[in-house]
């Protein structure tokens, strides 16, 4: 079992930008204010996802990591994606090696059970490479996620290798 910690107040506020101007395209009416979204993040349940669910999360690269199967290939993909997103892969590796608690990624789950990652892609990738299951916070969304609107704004996978 992975030891997680809650987000600090500053970290909750930092995650607001992961929704407003980004994931709000997938779940446009999830929250109308910073305060409403922070309350939803704080109240979200902690769950472990199945391997199949992990592979099918929208807005996450963890599926590509898990499908790579060979650790070296998984590591290569993860580090390339973290670099592309300008995220700190090394500090998360140190967290695993030193048993440092991390906040759980935040997932939006729609009324049909479809999943969209709001925050924590690099955490999910690093933990997957090391064969660790990281619990996530689930915010239940009463409507259907709009993957089409969201994915129109995302870079193509080929773009990862051009940077």
Question: Tags for this entry?
Answer:
single chain; 163 residues; alpha+beta; 4-stranded mixed β-sheet; 8 helices
Low-confidence stretches: none
Structural class computed from helices and strand pairing: alpha+beta
Order of helices and strands: HHEHHHHEEHEH
Strand line-up in the sheet with most strands: 1-4-2-3
**Largest sheet features:** 4 strands, mixed
Mean of the pLDDT scores?
Answer: 91
Number of helices: 8
Beta content comes to 5-15%
Overall radius of gyration: 15 Å
Proportion of residues in helical segments: 40-55%
Per DSSP E runs of 2 or more residues, the count of β-strands stands at 4
Q: Kindly, what is the distance between the CA atoms of the first and last residues, rounded to a whole number of angstroms?
A: 36 Å
Morphology call: globular
Count of folded domains: 1
